[in-house]
Specification:
Order of helices and strands: EEHEEEEHEEE
Shape: globular
Largest sheet: 9 strands, antiparallel
Length: 153
């Protein structure tokens, strides 16, 4: 698996906090993307999901997660969408290609890479939706970048 360690610069994010069944994820992503389009907000990257519930348990009841997108400028918040500043952070990243049905295999490989390279995973995983249901019709063509925030030991 190809992977990289990279620094994500400080960013302004539009965020929807969620505690719902994972099946509702697409609804909240659509709300966020429609807000960006309707309000003519300039995105500064791909949308992403941060999971606060264990990723391997996302199909078991309610999941706690954020749906976010980096934005330029300082757009107005809504009753559902907050705008926050995210500090610079270092991540271990790898891409998962295709259906999310087997994404846990990519997670497992990335954890092995972290352990082999003495990276300490210090936060919740992020899935950057490079090519996903918001911009692609065939899930076999999906591209998801998994990012673990890390420190090097």
């Amino acid at each position: 698996m190809d992977y990289e360690v990279k620094v994500i610069p400080e960013q302004k994010l539009a965020v929807i906090n969620c505690k719902t069944p994972i099946q509702d994820l697409e609804i909240f992503l659509n709300i966020l993307m429609e807000w960006v389009e309707t309000e003519e907000i300039k995105a500064d990257g791909d949308p992403f999901i941060v999971y606060f519930s264990p990723r391997h348990e996302v199909n078991q009841g309610d999941v706690v997660y954020d749906v976010s997108i980096p934005v330029k400028d300082d757009p107005d918040e809504t009753d559902r969408i907050r705008v926050v500043d995210m500090i610079e952070n270092k991540v271990l990243a790898a891409k998962h290609y295709g259906s999310p049905d087997n994404i846990m295999d990519t997670y497992a490989e990335l954890v092995e890479i972290a352990q082999a390279n003495h990276y300490d995973i210090i936060g919740s995983p992020k899935e950057v939706l490079v090519k996903n249901f918001h911009n692609c019709d065939d899930e076999n063509d999906f591209v998801t970048e998994i990012q673990f925030p890390i420190i090097e030991m």
